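dude i think i finally got it to work??
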Amino acid sequence: MGEDRPRGPASRAELSGEEDPVAGTARGRLGRRLYGRSAGKPLSARREALLSDLLPRLTVAVHPPGALDPASLFDGRPVRVVLEIGFGAGEHLVAQATSHPETGYVGVEPFLDGVAKVLVGIDAAGLTNIWLRRGDARDLLDELAPGVIDRVFILFPDPWPKARHHKRRLIQPAFLDQLARVLAPEAEVRFATDWADYANEALLVFTRHARFRWRARSAMDWRAPPSDHVPTRYQQKGLGDCSPVYYDFDFLG
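look at this
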């Protein structure tokens, strides 16, 4: 982009935190789990019922590697397919699906509480254009056919703030290789975080990858929320160490 290309926020010193109770090697691709406990407090009766009745009807079944065309999941072929990785409580996913009924959405989230919450939103809005997978997004990426995803949202993923835990962060070169395989020509990827060192690290990983191009032309392109952004519950808590940044990337094919 040349010399006028905006820079990400300045790095800050690592903040201290509690040791994560789960530091396993639950998955082979990167050799480590990217999240901690996948279940929390007991759920309400309504959420338990939705997990029992609605989730099985919306769960993307496990497919052989490279065999899943997500467009085939929906009634009528959607105009495009959007993947949200780590949808949290689902506010953004539900709002996007409500605003764009012609688009098919697939959401991936390891945490049971988040899955239960998004089911409440889906049920309340009567949505029929969302499919879900509870688990590791990298497993789903392995199952997807090449070139089948038109847009990806990765909003406020676990920042793993301690330096010794940075290797667990999602945005790594191997993950971008995996992501690039499933993206359609001219696909878009949005990454957001409110941790300064993760913002810098992720921007470096994306811009060093040959198949992604950062869209920003001025600082406001990454400092201001995009017009179609929907704040998440996590974002509103303000737990990070900087103001949120939003990086939009074009997939170069």
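The longest strand covers residues 183-193.
im so relieved honestly
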